[in-house]
């Protein structure tokens, strides 16, 4: 089956995720910058979550650009990824509202970890469905960056139990790592 419905559905879900996150931002009462100070944790968790959703959307788009068809297995793997992404507004809000307390920061890390695992499953499902597409398999390769992310999320979860800001800082580092453009897929598309 073609990939168009999967792409359209995924784009719609991701747009809704971002909409839910932004609707959770409450407008402060007052005109001074001092009324923004209590909202900084909420805004910080929103910004990081928005960046993560953007990273997943961008990489999802590039990966699907390399294929023409999807299978039932790919559809379920994609839904698995969307499920975990859909939890980002909840854990992001929980973390921000509770000013980066231990359990919300650890839960945020668990959701990020599961997003990374789900993305890896989706990538492997696409490769398995497109055995003849050597460019896709080569572009994804061993996915060292993805594996490093999984390890860092686990580390971040553990660190958040020691001190929540250490875990949060780890999640920021992973996001920064992914903001650096990953040319694996784009370089294959130019050929």
Automatic annotation (TrEMBL):
Chief subcellular location equals: membrane
Q: Which UniProt keywords apply?
A: Ion channel, Ion transport, Membrane, Potassium, Potassium channel, Potassium transport, Transmembrane, Transmembrane helix, Transport
InterPro entries, alphabetized? TMEM175-like
Q: Which residues cross the membrane?
A: 6-23, 35-55, 75-94, 106-127, 147-180
CC annotations in GO: membrane
Statement: the UniProt record of this protein carries the keyword Oxidoreductase = no
Instruction: From the Swiss-Prot or TrEMBL record, state where the protein is found.
Output: Membrane
Q: Which reaction does it catalyse?
A: K(+)(in) = K(+)(out)
Q: Name one GO molecular function term.
A: proton channel activity
Membrane topology recorded in Swiss-Prot or TrEMBL: Multi-pass membrane protein
Q: Which Pfam families match?
A: TMEM175
Record-stated family: Belongs to the TMEM175 family.
What's the protein called, per UniProt?
A: DUF1211 domain-containing protein
């Amino acid at each position: 089956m073609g990939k168009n419905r999967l792409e359209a559905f995924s784009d719609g879900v991701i747009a809704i995720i971002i909409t839910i996150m932004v609707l959770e931002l409450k407008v402060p009462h007052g005109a001074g910058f001092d009324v923004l100070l209590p909202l900084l944790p909420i805004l910080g968790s929103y910004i990081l979550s928005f960046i993560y959703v953007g990273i997943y959307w961008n990489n999802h788009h590039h990966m699907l650009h390399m294929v023409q068809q999807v299978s039932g297995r790919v559809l379920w793997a994609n839904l698995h990824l969307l499920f975990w992404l859909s939890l980002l507004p909840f854990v992001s809000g929980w973390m921000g509202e509770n000013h980066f307390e231990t359990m919300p920061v650890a839960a945020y890390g668990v959701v990020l970890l599961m997003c990374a695992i789900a993305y890896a499953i989706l990538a492997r499902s696409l490769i398995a469905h497109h055995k003849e597409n050597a460019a896709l398999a080569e572009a994804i390769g061993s996915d060292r960056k993805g594996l490093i992310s999984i390890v860092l999320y686990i580390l971040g979860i553990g660190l958040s139990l020691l001190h929540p800001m250490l875990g949060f800082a780890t999640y920021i580092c992973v996001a920064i790592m992914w903001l650096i453009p990953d040319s694996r897929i784009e370089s294959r598309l130019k050929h």
